[in-house]
Design goal:
The complex is a heterodimer. Chain A is of the alpha+beta class. Chain A contains seven helices and four strands; from the N terminus they run H-H-H-H-E-H-H-E-E-E-H. Chain A starts with 15 loop residues before the first helix and ends with a helix. The chains are: A alpha+beta, B alpha/beta.
């Protein structure tokens, strides 16, 4: 797996209508930066230099400004991630309810530490900060979905259900 | 158990409570009809008279915030619904979005009308993807029913609502950081003044209101400010969503009047401490509030003024409960690490200070601390958050309140549980 396509030459949105729709919602072009980055990442899986250039062209800003923005936010990735991104909340309420053990469990199970991806490209493990679901701690977000009130056993079941 | 009848969450156990048809069946959007027949000034005066204070953390009077918007001038005005819920221990806005999204939207339309805005935004944290999808549906439904768009419900009032996803940055919950983020930049807070009411989004007059704040508006319009003020303390009244998490038997969101004893929240509503353990410490208002000892927690009421009197705050009402088994050094490190990760990096005292707090606390927790470390932690918190003297207000050295938000909890941990910290250090020194 090429883990960094940073120098890919060009990027185009597969659905230009979605781009137009985003632009039509904002009073200025630059405000469309975050939604355009989200859309690009949905298509590419990460924010490459080519994505940055394309977004800069559309929003009529300098690529450095788009990069400055993209690199600020933890949800925009600068490289390819695993198919399933296991985001374990580690902030206080989750920590008090066993989140640390879930991280260790994933590490034991797949041999990956936080920030690492399995060699088959299936799983990436991430420790993340408060997901805003403290009442059902511990919580793991996998891609876009929250999984709440997890135990090691429930997590195992969940991981085995992922193809 | 409390006999308070919930107002904002009255219907959340009903199936389909999130739909427009359900919301209308329980009187939804009747406040909007009333408002459209009123003048904008009258709406602002009515909300001012209710003493509604912001539910996002700062507790600023909502009607007063609106009244700062210049009524003349040609610039467009904007309303932003702050749905960036990220304060550790807080999970009430997510519940409101999932269960009563039309109540929020009705509040947004009311607020937008009051300040004369024709484009409003919902800034929702990026992780809340399911909630974002639900809001997209809710907004589309509202357009179909002419609750949004041109000439709302036959009036001459137009409003568009745009849903904007964040991308994982705690600081974007701070209103000027949020505005920068909405403008397509990193979420670096702005120096105030100018306040957003004068120069906000795209340098235009802007109001940022929290999800729960907005959710109160339809009820205030329908039942009047006197009714609202009769719930809880008159200076900061109303129903309030309290989030209780940590070492309790029944964590959750509980709607109660402002001013409910913290003891009742923990021991009645949340079912008491897990495994029959003793209470040790509580964050009353998210991790940015100063922590309370068990003794303090057992005697304080949950409202803005009562908590301010004992040098902490209601904040976002995120109550995090810690029992006797919790290691205070580890808990403090957990919180310090959170702030080190989330510091936006703009102001030096905060960027450097949060990193050092995290390092020093790690050192203490791993048994390598020395007796100077405690003084150094206090010195760093002073340098980030200013010398915190509540009688003189805050003396922050940072652009936004993030500085105080890390200084308060860390300092309170060390001051109130100093023995727990000294134990780590004395063990090491006696070994040495």
């Amino acid at each position: 797996m090429s883990d960094n396509n940073f120098h890919k030459d060009s990027f185009e949105y597969v659905n230009p209508d979605l781009v137009d729709n985003i632009l039509s919602q904002y009073p200025d072009k630059r405000s469309a930066t975050l939604p355009l980055l989200h859309l690009a990442q949905t298509q590419e899986g990460y924010i490459s230099n080519a994505v940055v250039d394309t977004v800069a062209q559309i929003t009529e800003t300098h690529p450095a400004e788009v990069m400055d923005c993209a690199s600020f936010y933890t949800m925009f990735y600068s490289r390819v991630q695993g198919r399933y991104i296991l985001q374990v909340c580690q902030t206080l309420s989750c920590s008090l309810n066993g989140a640390d053990a879930l991280v260790d469990h994933i590490t034991d199970r797949y041999g990956i530490g936080p920030g690492e991806t399995t060699t088959d490209g299936k799983f990436t493990l991430m420790k993340v900060e408060c997901l805003g679901s403290c009442g059902t701690a511990p919580v793991v977000q996998i891609n876009n979905d929250y999984h709440e009130g997890l135990s090691k056993e429930k997590l195992d079941e969940l991981l085995e259900s992922l193809q | 158990m409390s006999d308070f009848q919930p107002i904002l969450t009255e219907h959340i156990h009903q199936k389909e409570c999130h739909t427009l048809s359900f919301y209308k069946s329980v009187g939804g959007y009747s406040a909007l009809e009333k408002v459209l027949a009123m003048s904008a000034d009258d709406v602002i005066e009515l909300v001012k008279a209710s003493n509604l204070r912001g539910r996002g953390g700062a507790g600023f009077p909502a009607g007063v915030k609106w009244s700062f918007i210049p009524q003349d001038g040609e610039k467009p005005k904007y309303l932003i619904n702050n749905a960036d819920e990220s304060e550790p221990g807080t999970f009430k806005d997510r519940l409101l979005i999932n269960k009563t999204p039309h109540q929020i939207l009705e509040g947004m339309i009311v607020a937008s009308y009051a300040i004369g805005c024709n484009t409003a935004f919902i800034y929702i944290r990026g992780e809340f993807f399911k909630e974002y999808q639900l809001l997209e549906k809710v907004v589309a439904e509202a357009y179909e029913e002419n609750l949004l768009g041109k000439g709302i419900l036959g009036s001459d009032y137009d409003l568009d609502v745009v849903i904007h996803r964040g991308a994982g940055a705690y600081i974007c919950g701070e209103e000027t950081g949020l505005i920068e983020s909405l403008e397509g930049k990193r979420g670096w807070p702005r120096i105030k003044p100018p306040f957003p009411a004068i120069e906000g989004y795209l340098k235009c007059p802007t109001v940022v209101n929290n999800v729960e704040t907005l959710s109160n508006l339809p009820h205030i319009i329908n039942r009047g400010p006197e009714w609202f003020k009769s719930i809880g303390p008159e200076k900061g009244p109303g129903p309030k969503l309290f989030c209780v998490s940590g070492n309790v038997n029944r964590p959750g969101v509980f709607e109660e009047p402002m001013g409910i004893p913290l003891k009742d929240l923990i021991f009645d509503l949340a079912g008491g401490i897990k495994d029959g353990n003793e209470l040790k410490a509580v964050f009353p208002g998210g991790s940015s509030s100063a922590i309370l000892t068990a003794e303090e927690a057992l005697s304080v009421n949950m409202d803005f003024d009562s908590l301010a009197e004992i040098n902490t705050m209601l904040g976002s009402a995120g109550v995090i409960v810690m029992d006797e088994k919790v290691d205070m050094v580890q808990a403090c490190l957990n919180i310090a690490r959170f702030y080190a990760h989330e510091s936006c990096g703009q102001c030096t005292p905060c960027r450097e200070g949060t990193a050092w707090l995290s390092k020093i606390l790690s050192r203490i927790a791993s048994g390598d601390g020395n007796s100077n470390d405690i003084d150094m932690i206090l010195e760093i918190t002073d340098n980030i958050g200013g010398l915190i003297d509540f009688s003189k207000g805050s003396f922050g050295k940072t652009i936004c309140p993030f500085g105080e938000a890390v200084a308060w909890p860390v300092r309170s941990f060390v001051e109130k549980f100093e023995n727990d910290f000294r134990q780590y250090i004395s063990q090491e020194e006696s070994v040495a």
